[in-house]
């Protein structure tokens, strides 16, 4: 033996609900112990392989890629020697995780090409002997039983350090994870459910002692480690070639781009041609012509899309119809999307109407082959709350006790007092803290799709999601690291709103020619946006955006693009500065080198690409390095690398003569891009959809609000949108079996309620009602309705309560309608040949109708709103004793303490700069919607009460900020 031992069986936290340490911790400890190489062999997955390769590079350890494959009671280690072996391993894991075969024996011989296989399962060793070239018997610190079988079969042994823990104290965490996986308690675990309690990472000297009885096994381990040299997954970008030939794809892309350019621009100017040629040269050099052509074909599957993200900076995307914003007119930065130095693939995001997206993804998979396409996964990690609940359940605590403890903990944290916690709960908290940030399970990315030229299993392990779609086991970062090119096919409710509103207009005889439709230039639309009257309007309807619109008073496209990006959570203090500068406050340039970059945003870094541009201009970063800084700001666990970037930024800026104070001010702006932020092309794409949405609201509010409500609204409650329609002068016509469709419909000053709002009504009943009405005309009576459509008693009860049958039962109250149906319904009514009136009852019993309040409560229960009045109607008498002002008059009382009634319509909690929670809550009364602020003290006192769906009496001071008005809440009282 060379004196070196390599751990070949090491499990990290990516062995989901099994491993107890992060990959970084394992690699760091191995480096400290003097190991020159180690293998990561998580169970049935390669989830963490990219993190493993990176961690090994950073610590100077040679990585060995592999996996511990388990099925039934058998297991094997598969260690990768080369690229062919990696493809064989990804295919093997895919087969195991999709349950295609009964055991490992039929799978492993094919997976052995390019791999080394070790097993300590006697039956498996028996079946593989003679069928696998490089096969070893796996000897662990805990068992030598396999040696006798190995000797008989002449299979050489190899020493494996079975590692699940770094310290003995990790075993308790491991047991909790196993209990969570089993959805059971720690006390119910059996011996075989867990790894050995001594499965620790041990030193080289300890290895010699542990395996002193089989030195040949140690020698073979060193040999295996020397044979496994695969350490780089990325080998160029992976994507199908459009039409089969790369050169023809590039030529086709050019011709289609020029055709689209003539449609978009008419006669092509020199500047347009220069931009087209420049982009096509980079796209061709990078080999991405097929990517653009395939995405363009996907976009053509529907008439309404929104290409967004950095791809909207591409004139090629614009000419192909992938995006809808002119990058030349709006000065969009193409290099944020694609540049000669960029190492990662482009990422084109396309929004489709939310109710069309799944069908489009299905079409794409059918067209390109489900064996060559898969969705990208999302790795779901333990957060504080989920970790606490799962660990507590693993200790056998019931949900109500866990909830009570969470509330106690929350209250004590708010009060700043030390919580009194017993030993059991302290242990639970400690364990929950330990596993916070661990991956828990896989989910499906909302729209990320990858496709490959050959079977996708040869590139990446594939599993099946609950809805039976294939899913790669890497998230978007892992897919990118492997060279897989992701297409994001996403759902957007507002595209459906625009689609449905335009369809409603067409039904009403109004045709909007979208070829000449120019909402951006419409004065009425701009004025409405400037006032912040944007409830229901895409991306500018949130309270924060409406307030920003009011503060700035700007409704033009250019400023809306700025607002869509600067509204990010970490930029609050820069938003205030922006508003003041927009209002005329003098300001000084951060540095002359940045003037051309930040001129249009008043000297404030607003867009993602500003980070890259500033780093290049001020600190001498290359474009690729600047993009790396931009990207690290969005990552989890970014602290270490961000510190490194900061040092490089300050150092580079200093060399360019920038003083430390200026560096610090600029770096503070860079840090405001923490978490999520937008690039300018993305904001411009969203702003275009905002303008289309706003134009419809400004000119055709009935059709627009009907479409908003039909598609589920957005930030606000259903009653909130109904109230907004009434505030716009609409009359809400009630549900009617002869007039209503599935969705809401608008015309003129009226909106007709649709069946979509009725809770509990079966979709099959709605479909039958509408289709039969289309065939046979309006329903003439309850009897006619029942003869023509099969309706269950439960659905009848809902229809009666909603008022949908009032028009076919003239003279009958709702209680009488229900009696009429139940008494006159013969056996088998509603079935073929049955009649409601086979034995008609001549006279109904005297039915006592419910009072108005009760009838309206039933209507509210099934509909979620009242057509002709606000829900506060139910509490009128109880609110009469309070001296309050109507919400529409709040702005007349700036600086005063007022009392007002409020029905909550949306809320958002945030943390202050000092880490204390506060909340913004939107309320409304019968006259207007208004904004309130619960600063930390008010939040601590009242936030938990607002969970109840009841009206409130709110007392607070009216404050004004650059034209935006809100109430600083001092007290709230529930109306009961």
Q: Strand count, sense and closure of the main sheet?
A: 6 strands, mixed
Shape: globular
* N-to-C CA distance: 81 Å
Give the number of DSSP strands: 23
- Helix fraction by DSSP (H/I, runs of at least 4): 40-55%
Structural class determined from secondary elements? alpha/beta
List unreliable stretches of 5+ residues: 826-842
Q: How are the strands ordered across the major sheet?
A: 2-3-4-5-6-7
Average pLDDT figure = 92
How much β-strand is present in the residues? 5-15%
Quickly count the domains: 6
Radius of gyration: 33 Å
Number of helices: 38
Topology:
Blueprint: E1 9-10, H1 23-32, E2 37-40, H2 49-59, E3 62-71, E4 74-80, H3 83-97, H4 108-111, E5 115-119, H5 122-128, E6 135-139, H6 146-153, E7 157-159, E8 162-163, H7 170-182, H8 204-210, H9 215-227, H10 246-265, H11 270-286, H12 289-299, E9 305-308, H13 315-320, E10 348-353, H14 357-368, E11 373-381, H15 384-394, H16 399-415, H17 423-435, E12 439-451, E13 462-464, E14 470-472, H18 476-481, E15 486-492, H19 493-507, H20 523-531, H21 543-552, H22 557-566, H23 572-582, H24 595-598, H25 608-619, H26 623-632, H27 639-655, H28 660-671, H29 680-699, H30 701-710, H31 718-727, E16 731-733, E17 745-747, E18 750-752, H32 763-776, H33 782-788, H34 793-802, H35 814-824, H36 852-863, H37 876-879, E19 897-911, E20 917-924, E21 929-934, H38 936-942, E22 952-961, E23 964-974
Parallel strand pairs: 1-8, 2-3, 5-6, 6-7, 10-15, 16-18, 21-23
Antiparallel strand pairs: 3-4, 4-5, 9-10, 11-12, 12-15, 13-14, 17-18, 19-20, 19-22, 20-21, 22-23
Helix pairs in contact: 1-2, 7-15, 10-11, 10-12, 15-16, 15-17, 19-29, 19-30, 20-29, 22-29, 25-26, 27-28, 29-30, 30-31, 34-35
